[in-house]
Amino acid sequence: MLNLRDLLQEMIDNNASDLHITAGVPPMLRIDGVIKRTSHPVITPDISKQIAYSILTEEQQKRFENEKELDFSFGIQGLSRFRANVFQQRGVTSIAIRQIPFEILDFKSLGLPDVVEEFSKKQKGLILVTGPTGSGKSTTLASIIDKINDERNAHVITIEDPIEYIHQHKNCIVNQREVKADTESFASALKHVLRQDPDVILIGEMRDLETMQAALTIAETGHLALATLHTNSTFESINRIVDSFPPTQQGQVRAQLAFVLEGVITQQLVPHISGKGRVLVAEVMVCTPAIRATIRDDKVHQIYGLMQAGTKYGMQTMNQALFKAFINRQISLEEALRRSSDPVELEQMLGEKERDISQLWFQEQDYNKGSQRLHEAVRNDDQCRSADGPVPRHSFEPARETFFQKDSDGGHDRCRIWNNTG
Questions:
Q1: Which domain holds residue 404?
Q2: Phi/psi at 175 (nearest 5 deg)?
Q3: Is there a contact between 319 and 349 (Cβ–Cβ < 8 Å)?
């Protein structure tokens, strides 16, 4: 009979991000972004319900039966933490479980851009981490909170649905609140959070107008707010926030956002070229005075160009990030183009790189006096060891060199070049 703990162990052993249990198929694992079948037998409706209910409290069971879906998290000692969603499909109970490691990785291990460390040092303002579901947003936020926890003396409050990474009290007090377990809703928690003497507030997800309004107010009152959005680009995040408000308030919201926004990270996880693991690629927008002006004046379409030219501030577009990952041989060309929102621009960038490589090649040929044939380490026949090592740039000129002849002079092997001109 299937045992959930054994399935979770198999999930860890295969380095899978997700486990799916649904009637009609065997348990399925998502490995490096791809759903794969396990060797277990097909799950029946009774077994899927039994597995799901085995990790629910009595109260959670009642909530699930009333609402037909439930988000929650749990941990197994010596294994890992997990985030789960139980839901009904065609009248049958199904469950999706995501692995959340106990260990919180640092920026370098995650592959985050260097500028993210600067974001973690901000004392106030709003920092957004965006991207599609499963792109590692929670992991990035956990790493930022952990960095703050290591380096600052502050009060951190997180509001999550559900709590994912567990933060220990280090230099900071870290209070983590779970929606439905510790508070009724994001809006309710944010309404009272400023009375709890916070320095840093993490908002698991800005889902509606109320949470967006609260995030702006928190950042405006001198606190650091961290939040996530499901958007696919940094400048799209700005439009998403502004468009959530009534037209009569949008001008004021743009002014607020231009004042409090410090940066936006949009990320995605791309399969590694080796076929093992995934690579984080991130678009980064840093709110420079020029970026703030475009937000305030409703010229968001100009942000992309500013990001392209803002590499000295740590900014990069998604295409620049994909280009870098491809050049560093982390991802394939096909995957880079597939993940790009503007593959034509990315192809142009790759074409320019190819031309640069061609120019370097021709320069090398000029350096070698136009010859396209080089000696192989002085023909690998340097019997008298006239060079300490190979000389790969020694040009070969057939008009002047006929052959090498070994000669002996007093018992010492020597090399003599015979010249065909005389």
A1: 378-418
A2: -105, 125
A3: yes
* Backbone dihedral angles phi then psi of residue 272, each to the nearest 5 degrees: -65, 150
Is 351 inside any structural domain? no
How far is it, in rounded angstroms, from Cα 314 to Cα 293?
19
Mean pLDDT score across all residues of the chain = 87
**Torsion angle of C-alpha atoms 133, 157, 82, 232, degrees rounded to 10:** 10
Q: Distance of CA 341 to CAs 67, 174, 225, 347, 391, Å?
A: 37, 38, 28, 12, 47
Closest CA relative to residue 57, chosen from 77, 79, 84, 78 = 84
CA distance 200 to 155: 6
- The strand order across the sheet containing 261-271 reads 173-178, 155-160, 200-203, 224-229, 125-130, 261-271, 278-286
Same domain, 133 and 240: yes
Work out the pLDDT band at 78, boundaries 50, 70, 90: confident
Residue pair 21/51 in contact by the 8 Å Cβ criterion = yes
Q: Which two tokens stand for residue 371?
A: 């010859």
> How do residues 225-252 score in pLDDT, each as one tens digit?
999 999 999 989 999 999 999 999 999 9
Among candidate residues 100, 116, 145, the one where a domain is terminated: 100
| Beta strand 92-100 pairing with 80-89 | antiparallel
- Confidence bin at 352 (pLDDT 50/70/90): confident
User: Same structural domain for residues 132 and 57?
Assistant: no
3 state DSSP class of 388: coil
The domain boundary residue, chosen from 76, 100, 124: 100
In a shared domain, residues 329 and 187: yes
Instruction: Please report the pLDDT score of residue 207 as a whole number.
Output: 86
Residue 96 pLDDT exceeds 60: yes
Q: Cα–Cα distance between 399 and 419 in angstroms, integer?
A: 9
Model pTM score: 0.80
Q: Residue 15 has which token pair?
A: 């380095």
312 and 214 co-located in one domain: yes
Same domain, 111 and 90: no
Are both 59 and 137 inside the same structural domain? no
| Main-chain dihedrals φ then ψ at residue 298, nearest 5 degrees | 60, 45
Residues of the chain by 3-state class (helix, strand, coil), percent to 5? 40, 25, 35
CA pair distance 330, 326, nearest whole angstrom: 6
- 170, 59: one domain: no
Residue 26: φ, ψ to 5° = -70, 165
Q: 200 with 142: CB under 8 angstroms?
A: no
CB of 413 within 8 A of CB of 400?
A: no
- Residue 285 and residue 261 in contact, taking contact as beta carbons nearer than 8 Å: no
